[in-house]
Amino acid sequence: MNADAQHEAVYGAPPEMLAVRDDLTPMLSQYADLCEAHDDALVLFQVGDFYEAFCGAAEAVARTCEVTLTKREDSTGTWPMAGIPIDNAAGYLERLLDAGYRVALADQVEDASEASGLVDRAVTQLITPGTVVDEELLEAGRATYLGAVARDGDDYGLAVVDVSTGECLVTGADRALALEELERLAPAELVVGPNCDLPSLSFDPMETPFDPDAFDPETARETLSRYVPRPEAVVESTVERRAVGALLAYAEYAQGDSKLEYVTRVTRFDPREFLQLDATAIRSLELFDSRSARAGSTLFSVLDETACALGRRRLEAWLRRPLVEQGAIEARLDAVGALADDALSRADLRDHLSSVYDLERLVARISRERASARDLRSLKTTLDRVPEIRETLDGVESGLLADLRDSLDELDGVRDHIDRAIVADPPQEITEGGVIAEGYDAELDDLRGTAEDGRAWVSNLEAHEQERTGIDSLEVGYNQVHGYYIEVTNPNLDRVPDDYVRRQTLKNSERFYTPELKEREDEILRAAERADSLEYDLFCEVRADVATESARIQAVADALADLDVLRTLADVAVANDYARPVFHDGDATDGASNDGTTAGIEIDGGRHPVVERTQDEFVPNPTSLPQGGVALITGPNMSGKSTYMRQVALVCILAQMGSFVPADAARLPVVDRVFTRVGASDDIAGGQSTFMREMSELTEILHNATDDSLVLLDEVGRGTSTTDGLAIARAATEFVHDEVGAMTLFATHYHDLTDTADERDGVFNLHFTATQTDGEVTFLHSVAEGPSSSSYGVEVAHLAGVPATVVERARSLVEADDEGSNTKPGQRSAHTGPDNDAQPTADARPDDDIQSPQDGPESPQDGTLAAYVDGLENGHRTADDDHETEPTVDAVARDVADELREADLVDTTPLEALNLLSDLKRRLE
Ligand SMILES: Nc1ncnc2c1ncn2[C@@H]1O[C@H](COP(=O)(O)OP(=O)(O)OP(=O)(O)O)[C@@H](O)[C@H]1O
């Protein structure tokens, strides 16, 4: 989409114009200059009411915006041209952005009527996915980030800014963590520093080339010092400083090389201060985006009862970044609890917050000098709510709510100022008067008085002149071109007095003025014009004055956002019957845990917050997952395994973001990370090798999970042959149990895997079942202890109405397989086949010996999964695994390789070569 080749003809001055540079008309010459100066964007050039583009850029605009490609002809040539109307440019700009273009708006910066010759034009704004500030191009409830990444050896710095609100975040981490954070923040546009070497990302940011010098440590310090007094106090390393410095430098450049006044806080965070959710987990738990077409089928949409855009963005941030500090989590839970218990305050808060405007964006517009008088009034309306909100919070018992109430600065000065200065219902335009309230400025009142007196004199003039001249039909009127006039019809012209001066002749009448009328007119116009321009100046002064309070207003915005989220979480908890989770510190004596293991996740009557909304009757299920425990979950397709696993993860995430949870009760540890690996068939990776993806996600988990992590494995190993799949699944289970110690839920169709529970204390089986009632298959959706019956799949096939002959044949195959098989892990056995008989997939392939990629001489002999699988297959890992290894692909491959090595290609005819190849291939297969 963002093809450079495509942009070559679009960005920069059109070569055909440069060829006749000296002969171009002044306007096109100005266009070419601006294109040259902004050769990293498509220049849209204001000509009156249109933005125009020429040559290659015109073709791109015409194609992308579906507008007509016309041409401009002059003495130097014929130039392809396309234009978009300025009045509704937003929709067109959006299309250009979506098509991957960066756009520079070259506006007329002087009044065309005052210009002597060519109107001055300048690029006033660069519009790119990460720098858009126009309301129409922004999603109200979502932060749009611009990001920058810098690298120093193994350390990465990452910074993002939301240019529409001024929120600026910076962090530093090793490569893996930084990439994870980058995925989580998913900036719309990314400035990548030298040598960063980023892999392909799961989202699709516009990568922006920018001056590498901006990443220089000293330059970055200088940039950052424009925003914070002591850069060293904000960031923790040079690489963080380089990232945030370059980021701000680019944002300034995009906003016309000026400081971003509304960036009043640069906040550093450590990813480890939050529950880490990588992009895979965010996606597979469907926190924000759902793979299902059903509306409202994400966790965010279930929670989103926010009353204002501030709250909506904050809710998203909290859900993306649940906490790990128990005190902070409890503070949020206390606040949610207090509001949940107080329906009246909750309703009042909702009411007040729903009339709160998007303060963060308002303040940014005010600082950027783009706010209108209406924006200032919106600010006032919002601030008017603050005392009421404070009052509502007076009676509510919670430390956090009390703190938030205290930080709600009433900003009386700002409110009064706006109230005194700006009329109650100002016009959208700020240059045409009617904006400043009466009594605010004496000079303005005088000027308005003069204009008013003049108009009053004119309105009396008609009667006065009718009486003086005796012409009853005489009229006094006004038009834009000629100003005030006295109109006399032709039959009365003989009675016109001598002081009437002819102004205009019409068909049936003449228009006149008198010297006094002219004088009054000049007076009125002078006063009105002067008043308009004074109003504009006064308005700018008020706006600038309000801008000096940006930081205080942003602090109010911050508190309102938090309040809206806490109120929302309370609403959701009450409406959906959620319970307050209790956190324990992992001590078994602290309760709940049964058999001496350390207490882990204990949930009574847990529900999936999203699925329960779409289901007539959702069956709640308990969870008891000790710390370090691995639950192997079996059961037929559609029985509820994935839903169950996800609901456990969602309960943990909700709890750590400070929300009540969909359960009767929950006792939880604070988890440090949630990992998910969902099965190949569920994977949206599409054409890529899903197995490779599955394995790299598994590797990621096994490397990074800790004993405080929650791991969901859904059908791991399904992407390859049954033998390898089962071996990998077993190895992964053992590894995660023996080496990692993470709380793990593993849904599997490999029935053989359930044996692992006999070998390891911390591994246990759970299962889901189905029954048949009146010929209908019913999934009970309730979890039970122990493994699912191994032949269950065939029974489900039967229940599902698969023809009897097929079911019988399947049964006899299972029995035959049972009799003739080993039960060694890694080999097909009676139960080895995935028990998801209702779903004939790749799993149903006959047994084969495709070697797992981890095998072979290069296998690392360390504590990795690869080594583990290797060990298993070679019989060294498990004490009771004393079977001979089946003839493996190793031996065949070695033979084939030897034969290839020995083949004398010089003396081989093409036919012989083909035969050899075919033979080797057959043996390998
Ligand atoms: N506890 C429950 N109560 C009611 N309905 C449920 C419950 N759990 C799941 N369901 C319903 O069953 C459907 C299938 O559930 P789920 O995808 O979890 O099954 P599964 O066992 O993981 O299937 P597969 O093995 O094919 O992935 C869900 O979409 C939901 O409609």
From TrEMBL:
BP GO annotations: mismatch repair
Keyword check for DNA-binding: yes
Cited HAMAP family: MutS
Keyword vocabulary terms for this entry: ATP-binding, DNA damage, DNA repair, DNA-binding, Nucleotide-binding
Summary of the function given for this chain in its UniProt record: This protein is involved in the repair of mismatches in DNA. It is possible that it carries out the mismatch recognition step. This protein has a weak ATPase activity.
An example Gene Ontology molecular-function term: ATP binding
Family according to the record: Belongs to the DNA mismatch repair MutS family.
Pfam family, one: MutS_III
Designated name of the protein: DNA mismatch repair protein MutS
Residue ranges of domain DNA mismatch repair proteins mutS family in the record: 709-725
Species: Haloferax litoreum
PANTHER family given in the database record: DNA MISMATCH REPAIR PROTEIN MSH1, MITOCHONDRIAL, DNA MISMATCH REPAIR PROTEIN MUTS FAMILY MEMBER
Residues the record lists as binding ATP: 635-642
Lineage, top ranks: Archaea, Methanobacteriati, Methanobacteriota, Stenosarchaea group, Halobacteria
InterPro entries tied to this protein: DNA_mismatch_repair_MutS, DNA_mismatch_repair_MutS-lik_N, DNA_mismatch_repair_MutS/MSH, DNA_mismatch_repair_MutS_C, DNA_mismatch_repair_MutS_clamp, DNA_mismatch_repair_MutS_core, DNA_mismatch_repair_MutS_N, DNA_mismatch_repair_MutS_sf
